């Protein structure tokens, strides 16, 4: 999964580096916050706040087309407690921690607004605690996932812009501590970002 995303981003960088494609560009950096819903497959879900920082570079092409690269670092307050997951009387607590993202977006300017879609790679932290009787095991994992999203960006003055964005991330399964059992995770996020452009 990492290899596929890295190859796609490298190919995009090569394409954008050609003089015929790249007309002009702008760098952006900003902050974001929103709602983060983490779901366990065949289980429950939990929603809480997330927050982070974002940066990117957009190439403004002919005809209102925009193609860009983005990076993001965020954290989440999501914490979920599930009981009787694998055995009667057990408790599985999962906490979403830091999330690192790299990806690309493609958009189209209609009037002052930019409507865009995005895709990329997410590497998220997950803390899992398994309790059953006297057994208490905690494990910190990193999850590889593919993120898809869509949003709209609207300028505020000459240097600032706000974004409203929805994204969905599907993660590979994580194995519980001292067990062969696995849990599948996905997440839905709705975020608002404020960025400054150079």
Automatic annotation (TrEMBL):
- Keywords recorded for this protein, A-Z: Membrane, Signal
Gene Ontology CC: membrane
Main subcellular location of this protein, as a coarse class: membrane
Residue stretches making up the Outer membrane protein beta-barrel domain: 8-179
Q: Which Pfam families match?
A: OMP_b-brl (PF13505)
UniProt keyword Membrane present: yes
Q: Where is the signal peptide?
A: 1-22
What subcellular locations does the record give?
Membrane
InterPro entries the record matches: Beta-barrel_OMP, OMP-like, OMP/PagP_B-barrel
Q: Does the keyword Ion transport apply?
A: no
Q: Which Gene3D superfamilies match?
A: 2.40.160.20
Family statement: Belongs to the Omp25/RopB family.
Q: What is this protein called?
A: Outer membrane protein beta-barrel domain-containing protein
Q: What is the lineage of its organism?
A: Bacteria, Pseudomonadati, Pseudomonadota, Alphaproteobacteria, Sphingomonadales
